[in-house]
Amino acid sequence: MMTLFGIKNCDTCRRARKSLETQGQPFQFHDLREDGLSAVLLEHLLERVPVLTLLNKRSTTWRQLPDDDKTDIDANQARALMLAHPTLLKRPLLDTGDDILVGYRDGDYDDL
Description:
This protein has a single domain (2-102), classed as Glutaredoxin. 39% of the residues lie in helices and 14% in strands. It has a four-stranded mixed sheet with strand order 2-1-3-4, with helices on one face. The mean pLDDT is 94. Helix 1 (11-23) links the parallel strand 1 and strand 2 (27-31). The chain is built from six helices and four strands; from the N terminus they run E-H-E-H-H-H-H-H-E-E. By secondary structure, it is an alpha+beta fold.
């Protein structure tokens, strides 16, 4: 079964959920804010998605971080920040079992 990682009140995540539901695709929703992000889950995601691709530098959470946390960030710092602040992950993330799709635009899930 596919897993969609996101946040309940995110408009893009809602559109992604609706797309999967409309297609009748079975999936499980993992709310990053409520369900959290474990180190094991983060490593699973990072097996298929580069760490700096997964880091959402346009999020409200990113903008609220101290400047010291945001300058000259490397992969280890990004991991630590994402574990401390799961909403720093780009979303939605769809784990299809074979691949992880980052973000969503209308039509992205049509070929599933």
